[in-house]
Amino acid sequence: IKILAIESSCDETAAAVVENGRKVLSNVISTQIDIHTLYGGVVPEIASRKHLERINQVVKEALKQASVTLEDIDAVAVTYGPGLVGALLVGTAEAKAIAYAAGKPLVGVHHIEGHIAANYIENQDLEPPFMCLIVSGGHTHLVVVEDYDKFNIIGRTRDDAAGEAFDKVARSIGLGYPGGPKIDKAAKLGNPDAITFPKAKMSDNPYDFSFSGLKSAVLNYLNHAKMTGEEVNPNDLAASFQKAVVQVLVEHAIRGTKEHGFRKLALAGGVASNSALRASLKEACEKNGITLYYPSPIFCTDNAAMIGAAGYYEYKKGRRSGWDLNAAASLKLGER
Ligand code: ATP
Ligand code: MG
Ligand code: FE
């Protein structure tokens, strides 16, 4: 089964061809980072316009690189939520037009289900059930992946997502957008024990996360330094902030995995690229007899191959979307 997949939920225009959910025949990503960097973040109207300009070429390129034509495709999968509504509309319209014209079934995919499925691409042996920590620009979820299309969220952020916290803190230190990779890099040159930041604890759900207090603590630290004229070492600040985020993520993920009796933990989303998170989680998993899975960086960030992987399993379960498939900006994981 070959799936043509399309992803346009944020600022990456992407298309891919994936065979049987695990073999990537092509994975084309046209990123808009250079444009949005000028504004310090994603500008929705510009994102939609750029998707529109690029999507036809990106799809064509994905088919070409996979050496297939639309005839060889069994279904068209597309991200229909969550994300920026104008951006999602470009992808869904494109997918509907292609599927309709080629007489192929259409499968709407949840973006986060895609991030989770990115783990299947390079880990041929990974099958549900397992625990998954999703850390992206808009989500921070600890999820029991019960089946390919069945999810139980046991922990979530109460405020900012992990990636959002990275981006906001990076902006306040003057590192620019997107902040995650910049903080990751700066932190390598800094001392993670230079500044102690508070850790938020949720008494009613020990698996939940909160990052806004940490973000405020960083801002307070910066303001205080400005007032007293103390010098701020941005590398130390980045390293200390990153350490605080990573500590909480690792603690909750390991605890959740153990308490739910799993021996497999997967990492997903853009922040899954973070080198400190990977290293710290690897160490904790080894200590606790847990096998850790994570995608290569190219499959962590937004891409269409992960949508093709998720789309394949949805297709196999008989899921089909109608021609009335609409963008769903705030679609919940597991919701149809
Ligand atoms: P969502 O998937 O929740 O809809 P999104 O698609 O915008 O949001 P992703 O593309 O999954 O998010 O991830 C982007 C986020 O990952 C950004 O916040 C970015 O700063 C962060 N990120 C990327 N690389 C790293 C890194 N090395 N360290 C920390 N954060 C990172
Ligand atoms: Mg992006
Ligand atoms: Fe994403």
From TrEMBL:
Fe cation binds at H111, H115, D302. It is an enzyme of class 2 (transferase). It catalyses: L-threonylcarbamoyladenylate + adenosine(37) in tRNA = N(6)-L-threonylcarbamoyladenosine(37) in tRNA + AMP + H(+). It holds the Pfam family TsaD. It is found in: Cytoplasm. InterPro entries: ATPase_NBD, Gcp-like_dom, KAE1/TsaD, TsaD. CDD domains: ASKHA_NBD_TsaD_bac. The keyword DNA repair does not apply. Substrate binds at I134, V135, S136, G137, G138, D167, G180, D184, N274. One of its GO terms (biological process) is tRNA threonylcarbamoyladenosine modification. Its cofactor is Fe(2+). Keywords: Acyltransferase, Cytoplasm, Iron, Metal-binding, Transferase, tRNA processing. Binds 1 Fe(2+) ion per subunit. Residues 23-308 form the Gcp-like domain. Its EC number is 2.3.1.234. Its main location: cytoplasm. It comes from the Bacteria. GO terms for cellular component: cytoplasm. GO terms for molecular function: iron ion binding; tRNA N(6)-L-threonylcarbamoyladenine synthase activity. Gene3D superfamilies: 3.30.420.40. Belongs to the KAE1 / TsaD family. Required for the formation of a threonylcarbamoyl group on adenosine at position 37 (t(6)A37) in tRNAs that read codons beginning with adenine. Is involved in the transfer of the threonylcarbamoyl moiety of threonylcarbamoyl-AMP (TC-AMP) to the N6 group of A37, together with TsaE and TsaB. TsaD likely plays a direct catalytic role in this reaction. This is tRNA N6-adenosine threonylcarbamoyltransferase. It comes from Anthropogastromicrobium aceti. The gene is tsaD.
